Amino acid sequence: MPVNKPLKRPKLANEGVVGRSTFFVNRALLNIRQNIFVNLVTIGTITLAILIISLFMLVFVNLEGVSNDWSKRVQVTAYFEQELSPPELATLKSLVQAIPGTDRVTYVSKEEAFKRFRERLKGQELLLEGITTDVLPSSVEISLKSASRNSDAISAYVARLKKVPGVTEVQYGEEWVQRYTTFMNFMRMAGLLLGSFLFLAVVFIVSNTIKLTIYSRKEELEILGLVGATRFFIKAPFLIEGILQGAAGAGLALVILTGCYYAFLHNAGNFLSFNPAASGLAFLPPVHIAGLFVSGVLLGFIGSITSLKRFVSV
Amino acid sequence: MIQLHNVFMSYQKEVTALHGINLRVPRGEFIFLTGPSGAGKSTLLRLLYAGLTPTRGQVVIDGQNVTRMTRSQIPYLRRSIGVVFQDFKLLPNRTVLENVAITLEVLGWGKQDINKKVYHILKQMGLEHKINATPLRLSGGEQQRVALARALVNDPKILLADEPTGNLDEENKDLILNIFKDANIRGTTVVVATHDKRLIENSHKRIVSLDKGKIVEGSDAGQ
Ligand SMILES: Nc1ncnc2c1ncn2[C@@H]1O[C@H](COP(=O)(O)OP(=O)(O)O)[C@@H](O)[C@H]1O
Ligand SMILES: [Mg+2]
């Protein structure tokens, strides 16, 4: 009986990680070219999705910026029983500085306090007649690190501050801090909630669009399985395609965002009078930009992987 | 070698497409699987390349129990089996070259080797001048030969063909039959499902007849 010649195995150009990756990337690029329309639809969807998310982020980042400015007003003032000598003052400063959450410590002497007081009463200096600088106590003004600028953290901070020897009284805008904290918590919650809904919606839409891309090639997927392709071999080009779509979509969205920002939004701050101190709206920080790009890539990848599940059963 | 032990196959609960099939096909043999439409020929072929899992019974190919294979083992089984589907399953928007190349790409062959090998097999099929055409611009007989080329390009141990002479004229039928015989001479086990009586009569090969899911003739080798 005749027998198959042992299969002469030619050297496999597509072997090894590099060869394989090149093959899969080429295949993905070929697929994109051969299905250019569906690919453009997918890229367009991702672009819109990332654009919506990034605009939302832009608003959020600016609101945070504004509120961060506000929160700089959170200040704790500690008063002393008697005037401190310079060495005593230095010890006290270092003790306060050692409390976690302390940002800056500024000493306000009796003279300085009196000077400020006088400035406040400008035009009514008569009221100060007979009053000496002795009347007002000296103090240290402490600004807090941003993580400690909420009511719980401040209460804890104040409790520790009161234990510092020499400090008799501590004041801070309690009510204001409370309101500010509530507002910030609400903003973060709303942002988180809105952001997650947005992201879910976007994942849903993108994965459905990618399903279209894959559906249009289900014959090919079937044939690949029938001629003995492994699941990895079938999926890899599609996953790369998804990643490329995600990268293209996110890239495009970021270009559009940057364009819009410099064309319209960049000096809209005055108009919105959000933040009179800053000149115009801030752009997204680099970390956010990178995050958006990665999200786009992930979107394409997750969209592909979930859609493939339905078609690659081999 | 192909072995089926007491194989039952039901698509839905009521319809039993195969009913207790026992079959042995020794390595290197050429058999025709015949019977009326609906007898279960296509179903039997699907079991052989693990396109279906039998409801009951065992399918063994080259000592490997196909019924017990994991999903990740199936691709390696399929690489040793060339299948010519009844509807060809060619990709309409790819060239003949690309359609045939799929079999070798899956194995990780390089482009140049693939091109050489595909050209070679297409030449055997008398199709080398159509290498850059798309299947839609080919005749039925030419499409059939492209499907055959894709199945044979990797010198499979087993060739399965479902109604390969469906709508072909006599000339094309002879051409196809000769390609099967050539492959068989080179050592490939060939199983052809067909209800084409004339094709069978002239071939002097073993015939296995199915009817209503049962083998009615030619169950064992050497009968
Ligand atoms: N995909 C399917 N779903 C349900 N029933 C099927 C399917 N394919 C085939 N059958 C049934 O199984 C039986 C055998 O079909 P098949 O194997 O195609 O026969 P043949 O190829 O000999 O004409 C028939 O009764 C047919 O109706
Ligand atoms: Mg059939």
Layout: helices, strands, pairs:
The complex is a heterodimer of chains A (314) and B (223).
Chain A: H1 16-34, H2 36-71, E1 75-80, H3 86-97, E2 102-108, H4 110-120, E3 139-144, H5 151-162, E4 167-172, H6 174-215, H7 218-226, H8 231-265, H9 269-272, H10 286-311
Antiparallel strand pairs in A: 1-3, 1-4, 2-3
Chain B: E1 2-10, E2 16-25, E3 30-34, H1 41-48, E4 56-61, E5 64-65, H2 74-78, E6 81-84, H3 96-105, H4 111-124, H5 140-152, E7 158-162, H6 170-185, E8 189-193, H7 197-201, E9 206-211, E10 214-217
Parallel strand pairs in B: 3-8, 3-9, 6-7, 7-8
Antiparallel strand pairs in B: 1-2, 1-4, 4-5, 9-10
Helix pairs in contact in B: 3-4, 3-5, 5-6
The complex binds adenosine-5'-diphosphate and magnesium ion.
Structure description:
- The complex is a heterodimer of chains A (314) and B (223).
- With 314 residues, chain A is α+β, with helices and mostly antiparallel strands.
- Chain A is built from 10 helices and 4 strands.
- Chain A has helices at residues 16-34, 36-71, 86-97, 110-120, 151-162, 174-215, 218-226, 231-265, 269-272, 286-311; strands spanning 75-80, 102-108, 139-144, 167-172.
- The longest helix of chain A is centred in the middle third of the chain and has 42 residues, at 174-215.
- Chain A is elongated.
- Mean pLDDT of chain A is 80; it is low at 1-9.
- Chain B is α/β, with parallel strands linked by helices and 223 residues long.
- Chain B is 32% helix and 25% strand.
- Chain B is built from 7 helices and 10 strands.
- In chain B, β1 (2-10) and β2 form a beta hairpin.
- In chain B, α3 crosses α4 (111-124) and α5 packs parallel to α6.
- Residues 11, 15, 17, 35, 37-43 of chain B line the site of adenosine-5'-diphosphate.
Mean pLDDT figure of chain B: 92
Largest interface: A-B, 30 and 36 residues
Q: How far is it from the N-terminal to the C-terminal residue of chain A, by CA?
A: 34 Å
Counted up, domains of chain A total: 2
Low-confidence parts of chain A, pLDDT < 50 over ≥5 residues? Answer: 1-9
Total number of strands of chain B: 10
SS-based class of chain B: alpha/beta
First CA to last CA of chain B: what distance? 17 Å
Which runs of chain B of at least 5 residues are low in confidence (pLDDT < 50)?
A: none
Total of DSSP H or I helical runs spanning 4+ residues of chain B:
7
Please give the number of β-strands of chain A: 4
From the alpha carbons, calculate the radius of gyration of chain A and give it in angstroms: 32 Å
Strand order of the largest sheet of chain B: 6-7-8-3-9-10
- Helical content of chain B stands at 25-40%
Bound ligand species:
adenosine-5'-diphosphate, magnesium ion
